[in-house]
Write a structure and sequence with these properties.
The complex is a heterodimer of chains A (289) and B (252). In chain A, 34% of the residues lie in helices and 17% in strands. With 289 residues, chain A is an alpha/beta fold. Chain B is of the alpha/beta class. The chains are: A alpha/beta (289), B alpha/beta (252). The interface between A and B is large, with 46 and 39 residues. Chain B: It comes from Candidatus Methanocrinis alkalitolerans.
């Protein structure tokens, strides 16, 4: 990859045109919106609400089903960077069906979405499920398989180790933190789904610690995601042990798609100033343990 | 921002299926911008602003049905104003509205008139009973009406109104209405694409440019933040006029 800065799952990855635009804007790889076996329209609105320090969302895994998604991946590939398909399922066999039904440059298993009944974290908070599903997908495809982990557990490293045992090529941490917001005027939860997942600057410190712990416990690469909006955030995540980062919520900043270049250029200038390579920066904070 | 509570202070029936809601709060909005309107317990939907303190709603589905059930004194949660809005350019402009698409154009025309810009309007509706804001448009300049059934004005689509005007006189043309109508107008104004601004309708969910549900093929333009007003030269050769996507992302 030319840039260690990738487009995170669930952000703008609904269409091939968006994936291609992210790639052409400097993303080193792009992850699609999660796709599953059946078409889903997602939760009722509001699906996103701005809260202190970030965003709260409960999109509800809207997707056209993997059967209608290959075209989007192919268009995304015109951007010239790897297109990673984020996939979800309620069971091991559903994950297998989606993975074998798509031709992508890699898969990211969504075992962490916090707000969709029967999917995501409801499956992925149990280490045994993570291991079994990872193993099944690894068996059925020949491209790299990453596992995106939920931070809504006591010990995220237990999930990371399960993914590693299942044969994952890497783990991605973290998905959003369970959260909710209530409208004071009407006493109602604001999100249509009542609760959702918190992203953005508010969760960065949680993500950095998760990445730090995972990088210490695992032999496979860790990809850091959660609250990255400036090159300094990416540097911090990489120093904690991430070998690449993903950006999501920060795409809402006025610079929009320009965020990929601004982060990777900032990182390059920093590495130049320090006389370091990216590889040397990975886990640089770990020697103080 | 969290949704702001707005109390409905007035409900104006415009036609049997269109009504205007005025709120107890006004927005510092550019005409063409929109609000995400949270109908509590039902859904959150985008609505273009038709007055600095109001929206004009057409009954089309479940969320708008719920809006029609509201009374004066009831509240809605509003996020906005969002999006870019129209940009007023030149001394003489043409507005072309279809159906309820007249709503943001009336707001725009009033702002233009205030700045001393000469305004001409074409309003296309199915029948005379569907016409909204006739008086608002009359007050700001010349008004040409077209009806599909010939019950008022020129018989035909909004584009039929173009033939009675010298399009070269206009420095800028503003469109809002059904997509086939706007695509038709753009098609009849070949060579003028850079002077046409169209307010386009897509499935908005987040209203902040991150969910991707409204992205335009093949450019990936996000109408919820980079629109809803898009210059016609950026629409030519895109999905515009051919298809859009539903809530799951599937083309329809």
């Amino acid at each position: 990859m030319d840039s260690p800065v990738m487009l995170a799952a669930g952000i703008l990855g609904t269409t091939g045109a968006s994936l291609r635009r992210a790639a052409l804007s400097g993303a080193g790889a792009v992850v699609t919106k999660s796709v599953g076996v059946a078409e889903r329209e997602g939760h009722r609105g509001p699906v996103v609400v701005q809260v202190e320090g970030g965003l709260l969302n409960a999109m509800g895994l809207p997707n056209p089903s993997y059967r209608s998604f290959q075209e989007e991946i192919d268009i995304g590939r015109e951007g010239g960077v790897p297109v990673i398909a984020s996939i979800f399922g309620a069971t091991t066999s559903e994950f297998g069906e989606v993975a074998t039904g798509l031709d992508a440059d890699g898969f990211e298993l969504n075992l962490s979405c916090p707000h969709a009944e029967r999917f995501g974290a409801e499956v992925g908070c149990e280490a045994c499920n993570v291991e079994e599903i990872t193993r099944a997908v690894k068996r059925s495809v020949s491209v790299p398989v990453w596992v995106k982990l939920t931070p809504n557990v006591a010990e995220i490293t237990a999930l990371g180790l399960a993914a590693q045992r299942g044969g994952a090529d890497g783990v991605v941490a973290i998905n959003t933190l369970k959260a909710m917001a209530i409208d004071v005027e009407s006493c109602r939860p604001i999100l249509g789904n009542r609760f959702g997942g918190l992203s953005g600057p508010a969760i960065k410190a949680v993500a950095v610690k998760s990445v730090y712990d995972l990088a210490g416990a695992l032999d496979i690469p860790v990809i850091g995601v959660g609250g990255i909006s400036r090159w300094e955030d990416a540097a911090e995540m990489i120093m904690a042990g991430a070998c690449g980062v993903q950006v999501g919520t920060a795409l809402r900043k006025p610079e929009g798609y320009g965020i990929f270049r601004s982060i990777s250029e900032g990182l390059a200038i920093y590495l130049d100033r320090k006389g370091m390579t990216l590889e040397e920066l990975v886990g640089a904070a770990r020697r103080f343990s | 921002m969290r949704p702001k509570n707005a109390e409905i202070v007035e409900i104006v029936p415009e036609t049997p299926t269109v009504r205007t809601l005025r709120f107890d709060l006004a927005f510092d909005a550019v005409p063409g911008q929109y609000l995400m309107v949270w109908v509590r317990g039902v859904d959150e939907v985008p609505m273009s602003i038709s007055y600095k303190d109001g929206i004009t709603v057409q009954l089309v589905g479940e969320a708008t049905r719920a809006i029609f059930d509201l009374e004066v004194g009831d509240g809605l949660g509003l996020r906005g104003p969002l999006g870019n809005g129209f940009s007023l350019l030149g001394d003489s402009i043409l507005l072309v509205g279809g159906g309820v698409g007249a709503a943001p154009l009336a707001f725009l025309g009033e702002a233009a008139k205030e700045r001393g810009i000469e305004v001409t309007t074409i309003l296309g509706v199915r029948c005379c009973g569907d016409l909204i804001f006739r008086e608002r448009f009359r007050r700001i300049g010349e008004l040409v009406i077209t009806t599909d059934d010939g019950s008022l004005g020129i018989c035909g689509r909004a584009s039929a109104g173009l033939s009675c005007l010298n399009l070269q006189e206009f420095h800028q043309i503003y469109l809002c209405g059904p997509e086939p109508m706007m695509a038709d107008v753009i098609g009849r104004c070949r060579g003028m694409e850079t002077k046409i601004q169209a307010s386009i309708d897509r499935y908005f969910k987040c209203g902040m440019g991150i969910c991707g549900s409204c992205s335009i093929d093949p450019s990936g333009i996000r109408p919820c933040v980079e629109g809803p007003v898009i210059r016609a030269d950026e629409l030519v050769g895109t999905e515009f006029g051919r298809y859009k996507r539903g809530p799951s992302g599937r083309k329809k």
